[in-house]
Write a structure and sequence with these properties.
By secondary structure, this protein is an alpha+beta fold. The protein has helices spanning about 20-40, 50-80, 140-155, 200-205, 220-225, 225-235, 265-270, 280-315, 320-330, 340-365, 370-390, 395-405, 410-430, 440-454, and strands at about 1-10, 10-20, 85-90, 110-115, 130-135, 155-160, 170-175, 180, 185-195, 215-220, 250-260, 435-440. The chain has 3 domains: about 1-115, Alpha-Beta Plaits (2-Layer Sandwich), CATH 3.30.70.1050; about 130-145 and about 280-454, Trigger factor, domain 2 (Orthogonal Bundle); about 155-260, Roll (Chitinase A, domain 3), CATH 3.10.50.40. The radius of gyration is 35 Å and the shape is extended.
Length: about 450
């Protein structure tokens, strides 16, 4: 076997793999003999089919398969052993068309591949680069809003005497005709509505301050925005709603109100675990710590974007194998069109610059990702997901089990490895650039993203 490389230019090369019978004959023969052992053909005892017949039936396919496997294996090995900075994957050569081989007769074969190569460049972290690090100020409004969130989350439903806008009103509803119950009209038991959801203020006000046992005449068509709400209220099919235009009477049987929790020990225990918070002052301190942690994550995210952009701008003049990359994208993605590739190409190059930069920093600083790093990142993702639903004090065992379940997916694990590596690289960048720290309000911080989108 012979493998050679011809450099076309700094970003493109051609690899030629030449093989002869000695490279594959032994494996082909071994596989055919394995076929013979398992063959079960009429007229022959199991495992006793003549080898010549097996070769005649399967020889061509087995030979082609072994040659293709051998070429693929050696191509990968050559790239790894020579540390070639390959982008994408090798593709069959465009300039040297692969001939139609006769695997029955031929013994020698040549295979040609085009490869795209990453540009050569160095990443120096010498403290001269500058990145702004935004520290988001915690306002009293943030703290109060978070307190309201907790009191709302741990509130409770209770029965009340008179209707307010956000209450749930349960009752029996009947269709009216000329002010009286319509014979064979629509009737619904235990239907529920909330005045706050009514689009018409006049209809909404009919319910405000009414009490249990009161009867209210209203028009569902005027009250509600869409047919789905009306069909749910009247317990009829959606297609029947179009015929509804009359008034209905609802007799109130129950008024339910959701009341926010009081700021007391019961709330502290529900929010942060029994006995962990013992006063409103500690409650506010804990909330402030939570907000600070969340805001730091936002600051880190912005730092990531800005550090990435700094390197993209620095290395934007690098040369890439544009023709090869576009061809590779079209070849490996069925949904891609030439138009889509051309449109996406600038963003793809930016992603490549950032990925190559991270790789070089990782190698220069001997950064590695071990299993504990991946597990820790998985737990961090798990905690963030639970926090979205207000579950901020989950037991460690629950977090670990959930994280382990996520890591059963190979694609998820690969993503966690990439993210864990990026975090380590960013930590090195943060230590080796000049951070221009700037305190900023949450409103102005959010505008930074709006400006970029614009």
């Amino acid at each position: 076997m012979n493998i050679s490389r011809k450099d076309i230019d700094q970003n493109n090369a051609e690899i030629t793999i030449s093989i002869d019978k000695t490279d594959y004959a032994e494996n082909v023969d071994k596989k055919l003999r394995d076929y013979r052992k398992k063959a079960n053909m009429p007229g022959f005892r199991p495992g006793m089919v003549p080898l010549g017949l097996i070769k005649k039936m399967y020889g061509k396919a087995v030979k082609a398969e072994e040659i293709n496997n051998l070429v693929s294996e050696k191509l990968i090995s050559y790239i790894e052993e020579n540390d070639l900075p390959v982008l994408g994957q090798p593709l069959p050569s465009e300039t040297k068309k692969q001939p139609e081989y006769d695997f029955n007769l031929q013994e020698e074969f040549d295979f040609y591949f085009d490869v795209g190569l990453a540009p050569a460049f160095e990443v120096e972290l010498n403290g001269e680069d500058e990145v702004t690090y935004y520290e988001i100020a915690i306002s009293d409004e943030m703290i109060e809003n978070q307190i309201k969130s907790y009191t709302s989350r741990f509130g409770k439903y209770e029965q009340v005497d008179a209707v307010e806008e956000n209450d749930m009103v349960k009752g029996h509803i009947v269709e009216l005709e000329n002010g009286t119950e319509k014979e064979s009209g629509i009737r619904a038991e235990n239907t529920v509505l909330t005045p706050a959801y009514m689009k018409d203020e006049e209809q909404k006000n009919l319910f405000i301050s009414k009490e249990k046992g009161d009867k209210i005449v209203f028009n569902p068509r005027k009250a509600f925005e869409n047919e789905t709400e009306i069909s749910s209220l009247l317990k009829i099919k959606k297609e029947e709603v179009k015929d509804i235009a009359t008034d209905f009477q609802l007799e109130i049987t129950e008024i339910t109100r959701y009341s926010h929790s009081e700021i007391n020990q019961e709330l502290f225990d529900k929010a942060f675990g029994e006995g962990n918070i013992k006063s409103e002052e500690e409650f506010r301190t804990k909330i402030t710590e939570e907000i600070k942690k969340n805001l730091k994550a936002d600051s880190e995210y912005k730092f990531t974007l800005d550090a990435r952009q700094m390197f993209v701008d620095k290395f934007k003049e690098l040369s890439f194998p544009e023709k090869f990359l576009k061809r590779w994208l079209l070849t490996t993605n069925e949904e891609m069109t030439q138009e889509k590739v051309d449109e996406a190409y600038p963003r793809i190059i930016e992603d490549l610059i950032w990925d190559l930069t991270k790789d070089k920093i990782a190698k220069a600083h001997d950064i590695k990702v071990e299993l504990p790093d991946v597990e820790e990142y998985a737990k961090k993702v798990t905690k963030a997901q639970f926090a979205q639903y207000g579950m901020v004090n989950m037991e460690d065992e629950v977090i670990e089990n959930y994280a382990k379940n996520m890591m059963k997916e190979e694609k998820t694990v690969r993503n966690f490895i990439d993210r864990a590596m990026e975090e380590k690289v960013l930590a090195v960048i943060r230590e080796n650039v000049k951070l221009n720290k700037e305190e900023i309000s949450i409103e102005d911080f959010n505008k930074l993203f709006e400006t970029k989108e614009a």
